[in-house]
Write a structure and sequence with these properties.
alpha/beta, Rossmann fold, seven-stranded parallel sheet, 17% strand, NAD(P)-bd_dom_sf, oxidoreductase activity, acting on the CH-OH group of donors, NAD or NADP as acceptor
Length: 238
C-alpha cells in the first residue's frame, strides 16, 4: 500500500474538496453522487441526461458530453467559475453493447471506446493539471473482471476496460516520475457485473443473472476508497 502511494501521506479536508462524478445520472453514478452529498461533500455530476430526481443542495448537475473535448472544456470552465478546481475525479461513465466482433457496427465500436477510454484521457487532461500543480487530488476509474477474462459478445467492452487498467498503471508512473506529484492518487476499481440498466440490458438473463450484484455495496467500496485518499487496485468481492 505504501508503494502505491509513493510512501507519502496526504490530508483531505472534505469541507473544501470538490468531487466530480461522470455518468452521474446513471444507476451507479447517481447513488455515488447522493452518498457523497449526504456526507456533506460538495459534488458535481456530469452526464448527457439530467438526473431523474432533484439533487441535494450541495450537488450540482452539468449536462456534458465527456467524449467531446469542446463540451468538456466548456463545462470545466463553468465548474471552476461556480465551485473552484475539482480535487477528486470519479469516472463512472460507461457503455456496453452485446454483439459479437463480426456483428457489431463500426459506430457501436467507436461509441464503446469513446466513452470507456478516450474520455478518460480527455478528463485527465482537463482536470489533473490543477491536482498536479497542488500535489493533491485523486483520480478514480472503473474497470471490470472482463479485463482478465473477456466474455463472448462484449469483447470491445473488455478491450476498452483493459485500456483503463493500462491507463491507470501509466498514470501512476507519470504522476510520480514525470510530474513529481507523488501525493496525487490514482485508483482503479475492478467490478463484477453490477445491477444497472446497462448491465441488465445485456446480461440480465440466463445463468449470469444470479451473478449480478446490487449497486449499493459497489458504491460503498468506491466511497471508502475516495475517503481513504489512497491509490490502489480495489476488487469486489474484496
Amino acid at each position: 500500500m505504501a508503494l502505491f502511494n509513493n510512501f507519502t501521506r496526504d490530508k483531505y479536508d472534505w469541507r473544501r474538496e470538490l468531487v466530480v462524478v461522470t455518468g452521474g445520472s446513471g444507476d451507479l453514478g447517481n447513488i455515488l453522487v447522493r452518498k457523497l452529498a449526504k456526507n456533506c461533500i460538495k459534488v458535481v455530476s456530469l452526464d448527457i441526461v439530467p438526473p431523474e430526481n432533484p439533487l441535494p443542495s450541495n450537488a450540482s448537475f452539468y449536462e456534458t458530453d465527456i467524449t467531446s473535448s469542446t463540451s468538456l472544456e466548456k463545462t470545466a470552465e463553468q465548474i471552476r467559475c461556480d465551485h473552484g478546481e475539482p480535487t477528486v475525479l470519479v469516472n463512472s461513465a460507461a457503455v456496453m453493447n452485446m454483439a459479437s466482433i463480426l456483428d457489431e457496427t463500426e459506430e457501436q465500436i467507436h461509441q464503446v471506446f469513446d466513452v470507456n477510454i478516450i474520455s478518460s484521457f480527455l478528463l485527465i487532461k482537463e482536470f489533473l493539471p490543477s491536482m498536479i500543480k497542488h500535489n493533491h487530488g485523486h483520480y478514480v476509474d472503473i474497470a471490470c473482471r472482463e479485463v482478465f477474462a473477456p466474455g463472448v459478445n462484449n469483447v470491445d467492452y473488455a478491450c476498452s476496460k483493459s485500456g483503463t487498467l493500462a491507463l491507470h498503471e501509466g498514470l501512476m508512473k507519470e504522476l510520480r516520475h514525470r510530474y513529481k506529484a507523488p501525493k496525487v492518487r490514482a485508483s482503479v476499481i475492478h467490478l463484477p457485473h453490477v445491477k444497472t440498466a446497462m448491465v441488465e440490458k445485456v446480461k440480465g438473463s440466463g445463468f449470469l443473472k444470479s451473478k449480478i450484484v446490487k449497486p449499493e455495496p459497489v458504491v460503498d467500496l468506491i466511497f471508502r476508497q475516495i475517503m481513504a485518499g489512497r491509490s490502489g487496485h480495489v476488487h469486489l468481492p474484496e
